[in-house]
Design goal:
The protein is of the alpha+beta class and 166 residues long. It is 46% helix and 17% strand. The chain has a single domain (9-163), classed as Alpha-Beta Complex (Sufe protein. Chain: A). The protein has six helices and four strands. A four-stranded mixed beta sheet has the order 3-2-1-4, covered by helices on one side.
């Protein structure tokens, strides 16, 4: 798939279904019990707000990842998919997956390139997260899709606040 080529109608429809499903029925929409970190994210452009909580084991594994907040379907869907993709993964993988998702959303990578940029165990997650790539056609929406990821990285870095305006 050429990064600049428009999505075909079947793929666009599938991607919309995934985003709508996660936006209407978000997974892990809660607070993590005994969280080891917590960070709030804010997108002042559209008012999206998310709080990400995570429990990281002493071995550096994301035992649980969850979120709460209010925002557009893209922001909520992204947080939902993020929490599913990263639960049980080493915390170090979060940065790799964030970079791949960011590059998918901005058009720097297509789905195949993003898949090659992360550990093979995350291949199925990238397939689902590729549904966020449609935001590249609407640059202001990239911030909606990446807000939960910024909050998670802040959480893991010991910061309590983040914004898409940094």
């Amino acid at each position: 798939m050429n990064q600049s080529a428009p999505l075909n109608d079947d793929l666009r429809s599938l991607y919309q279904e995934i985003i709508l499903d996660h936006g209407k029925s978000p997974r892990n929409f809660r607070v993590v019990e005994h969280a080891s970190c917590k960070a709030q994210g804010n997108n002042p452009m559209c008012g999206d707000r998310v709080t990400v909580t995570a429990r990281v084991s002493p071995a550096g594994v994301l035992e649980d990842v969850a979120f709460e907040g209010k925002g557009c379907a893209i922001s909520i869907a992204s947080a939902s998919m993020m929490s599913e993709a990263l639960a049980g993964q080493p915390a170090a993988v979060a940065q790799q997956l964030f970079a791949a998702v960011h590059d998918l959303c901005t058009g720097k990578l297509d789905a195949d390139q993003a898949k090659a940029a992360v550990p093979p165990v995350l291949g199925d997650s990238i397939d689902k997260l590729a549904s966020l790539s449609g935001v590249r056609q609407f640059p202001v929406r990239v911030k909606c899709a990446t807000l939960p990821w910024h909050a998670l990285i802040s959480c893991l870095d010991g910061k309590t606040q983040t914004t898409t305006e940094k």
